[in-house]
Design brief:
single chain; mainly beta; 3-stranded antiparallel sheet; 1 helix; 9 strands; 36% strand
Length: 163
């Protein structure tokens, strides 16, 4: 209750939400971010289409304890996919590399560190052509800058019917 706009005192069930918090610029950004995130989720089938089966998710790397990064792929039944990468520490990772299953140009479609969400990035990462090279079990690699304490989500430009 109230977390969609950064309410400070949550779970006061006997009182209404603290709507005056929307006068605070950061709380307003939080509300805008939450609204956009909900729309992004709704509009991108790979994030939810196969939720009741392991077929909808493919772990890229869950063992990156040195950098505290988690990466995975969410998929649709048709094979459309989103590559999701989460940095759990306050250190920006330049030239961060992960494996991907498909040779393609990838476009970053979500970045939590953009200024409009309260971050410091002015724009998304540039599009990236995957490179041939074995990374774990993947025949291609993708290299980009991963935001500190942030998420970066990528789509394959050639095949994804995502938003």
């Amino acid at each position: 209750m109230g977390s969609e706009f950064g309410q400070f005192l949550e779970w006061k069930s006997e009182e209404q939400l603290e709507w005056s918090n929307l006068d605070d610029h950061m709380n307003k950004q939080m509300q805008t971010f939450t609204s956009a995130l909900n729309a992004f989720y709704r509009d991108n089938r790979p994030l939810w289409e196969i939720d009741l089966s392991y077929d909808g998710i493919e772990i890229i790397d869950a063992d990156n304890t040195d950098q505290s990064v988690l990466s995975f792929i969410r998929k649709t039944e048709k094979g459309d996919m989103l590559v999701c990468v989460f940095n759990m520490v306050p250190v920006e990772r330049k030239n961060f590399t992960i494996g991907v299953p498909v040779a393609a140009v990838y476009e970053e479609v979500w970045n939590t560190e953009l200024e409009k969400w309260g971050g410091v990035w002015k724009e998304h990462n540039e599009t990236v052509q995957s490179q041939e090279g074995l990374w774990k079990d993947y025949p291609q690699t993708l290299t980009f800058t991963l935001p500190a304490l942030g998420a970066s989500i990528w789509k394959n430009q050639a095949s994804c019917e995502c938003s």
